[in-house]
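Q&A log
Question type: sequence-to-structure
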Amino acid sequence: MAIFTAISSVAATVLLVHKVINDYRVLFSVIKKTSSKFSKKVTMVIDECDGDQVKNEIYEAAEIYLSNKLMSTKNRKLKVSKQEKENNLIKVTMEHNEKVKDVYDGYKFKWVWLEFKCFDNPKDMDSLLRSEVKCFQLTFHKKHKNLALDYYLPYIIKEAKFLKR
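Response status: OK
Response body:
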């Protein structure tokens, strides 16, 4: 009889813990969804190419600008490469999911480089061309959205053109 009581007690405890964990998961999910609606951050996604596979000038500029910025930051992961044709030119870029913080005129911006592999239909040539999706995520305070669009991104493009020379 004592064993049955002990087993019943353990089973009841397990069920109670399971219910509490599920309740916390639901509560956490609701809090996360609600807080994201009131977030003070905005994230812009800058794709490598637009829908017609045309290179995005902002993406290329960000790649050049951040590549230069990486040399002066404390990032621990750097992706380096060198093409055989290029004499002594080592390209430094961000590693997947790496973050770089930047300050423009006293305003803080955070960059993250993302790369996704996706295969819609491996037999379709257009699908193979779109198998890698690369983008930058630029995150900043939402009250600085106009500053980012009107000044910061044009600044990035201008700096990239200068660095490209």
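Response note: The first strand starts at residue 41 and ends at 47.
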